[in-house]
From TrEMBL:
GO terms for biological process: L-phenylalanine biosynthetic process from chorismate via phenylpyruvate. The keyword Transferase applies. Residues 301-328 form a coiled coil. This is Aminotransferase. One of its GO terms (molecular function) is pyridoxal phosphate binding.
Length: 394
């Protein structure tokens, strides 16, 4: 049997991490992998997470199984964090999943169960693992226009035109905020038009919210999701606690569905739990429980929000600094959109050759499509990067 195995396609980001590690230069810059870093280049355990772990260690008296959907208190707390308290509470169903990736996988399985023929529309570009999961599950995939390479912003007109052509019952995957890989997000007006268009077409949104709190703040980052929940009868929402709680390796995620009424929501809950049962029975609990403790304790929650806010503003300051340095060094407006982007990523308008030159000549590692992780920079390295990019024209 094993002789039939073939090499799997290399994950471009993980290959880049390895190439960076193997590079002997000391003045190298890793802007590849999507992990937050502080000014010292560390990905720290957040203060509130440490405190919640201490409390859990002292107070937890059993490691027995939870429920198939995970602890209902986690689903309730996360549901409120994403939607705000009181929105569509009787239409919600949810399961805890291993990370946001697990939520995406289970969302696709949910669609496969409920409407296997649904075509799934994804933005061009999107997080490569969306495409990989859709291919692995044999889904019918189509792409809608999203990024305007000329302006570095969202191609609003192209996006709405493409979404106007989706069939009734199709699923439309949307990044709720901090689009990965481009950093370009729809503005409030475009979210309204998305809601109207999906409503007219009878399409179901699949929202991926992996960076809530990294863009413009916890509530603003969820505004698009909340608008769609207020407007549309059915939605799927995949959330990750990897970035905003720094719980990457603990694998904390949530798949939240919104049904048209409470009866259908009960059916959705049973289906979701069945999907967990088939995949791994019970979802991981440790990280989810830390999130529940933090969100349920006013002091821990305030401390978590403070720390998250300092991460967000650090990235925003770096983006503004980078846009300004690039403008100065290149004497052009080519990179101005960097300041308008949000979250951890920005797609720079660079050719493949330029990206290769940056790696070879300057030890700057970025993903092949020009995506950089802003958190991989600091106030010292921003000017170095800007000068390296400007020198490409020499
Ligand atoms: N969706 C998007 C758009 C992402 O960027 C990520 C993380 N890279 C995820 C989902 C899932 O993250 P995780 O499984 O680590 O929680």
């Amino acid at each position: 049997m094993f002789e039939n195995l073939k090499p799997q396609p290399a994950d471009s980001i993980l290959s880049l991490m390895k190439a960076f590690r193997d590079d002997p230069r000391t003045e190298k810059l890793d802007l590849g992998v999507g992990v937050y870093r502080d000014a010292d280049g560390r990905t720290p355990v957040m203060r509130a997470v440490k405190a919640a772990e201490r409390r859990l260690w002292e107070e937890q008296d059993t490691k027995s199984y939870t429920a198939l959907g995970g602890d209902p208190a986690f689903a309730a707390a996360m549901g409120d964090l994403i939607l705000g308290e009181g929105l569509a509470t009787d239409r919600r169903s949810a399961i805890a999943t291993p990370g946001g990736t697990g939520a995406v996988r289970q969302a696709i399985e949910f669609i496969r169960t409920a409407r296997p023929e649904a075509r799934i529309w994804v933005p061009d570009p999107t997080w490569p693992n969306h495409l990989s999961i859709l291919a692995a599950t044999g889904r019918d995939v189509a792409h809608y226009r999203y990024f305007d390479a000329e302006t570095g912003g969202v191609d609003d007109a192209g996006m709405i035109a493409d979404l106007s052509a989706v069939a009734k019952g199709d699923v439309v995957l949307l990044h709720a905020c901090c689009h990965n890989p481009t950093g370009a997000d729809p503005d409030a007006e475009t979210w309204k038009r998305i809601a109207e268009t999906l409503g007219e077409r009878g399409a179901v949104p699949l929202l991926d919210i992996a960076y809530q709190g990294f863009g413009d703040g916890l509530d603003t980052d969820a505004a698009g999701v909340r608008l769609l929940v207020q407007t549309l009868p059915e939605l799927l929402i995949c959330a990750s606690c990897s970035k905003n709680f720094g719980l990457y390796r603990e694998r904390v995620g949530l798949l939240l569905t919104i049904a048209r009424d409470a009866d259908t929501a009960r059916m959705a809950q049973a289906t979701l739990e069945h999907l967990n049962r088939q995949a791994y029975s019970f979802p991981p609990d440790h990280g989810a429980r830390l999130v529940t403790i933090i969100l349920g304790d006013p002091a821990l929650r305030a401390d978590w929000q403070d720390e998250l806010e300092s991460m967000r503003t650090r990235m925003l300051d770096l983006r503004r600094q980078l846009a300004a340095e690039l403008r100065r060094e290149t004497n052009s407006e080519r990179f101005d959109a960097v300041a308008d982007h949000r979250g951890m990523f920005t797609r720079l308008r660079l050719s493949e050759d330029e990206i290769a030159t940056l790696r070879e000549r300057h030890g700057v590692y970025m993903v092949g499509d020009g995506r950089i992780n802003i958190a991989g920079l600091d106030t010292r390295t921003v000017p170095i990067l800007a000068r390296a990019i400007a020198s490409l024209g020499d």
